[in-house]
Fold:
Amino acid sequence: MNIDKLSKLGGCSAMRCARDPSIQFDAGICAECIWGSDNVTAASLQFAASTPQGSLLNTCDLASYVAPPVGPDLGITPNPDILGTPILKLA
Structure:
């Protein structure tokens, strides 16, 4: 099974919803995304890294172009002054 295109599926959460049942049926996972920003690349790499060993068929090796951040997040700090007032706050 080709679970790919992080942006096409709607982000990491949607991709995980497609990946996890696929793994239960022993389907191989191809985790990629369109060529995007550093943030898209970091998300794709971390998604691939979170896929169980033996289930990941391949992912784009963009690490030579953009290094993934260290740690659990995407390595970005949004500037709230530029973003403005949030339309939704999660508790």
Summary: The mean pLDDT is 78. Residues 47 and 56 are 10 Å apart (CA to CA). Strands lie at 29-31, 56-59. Helices lie at 6-9, 12-24, 38-49, 80-83.
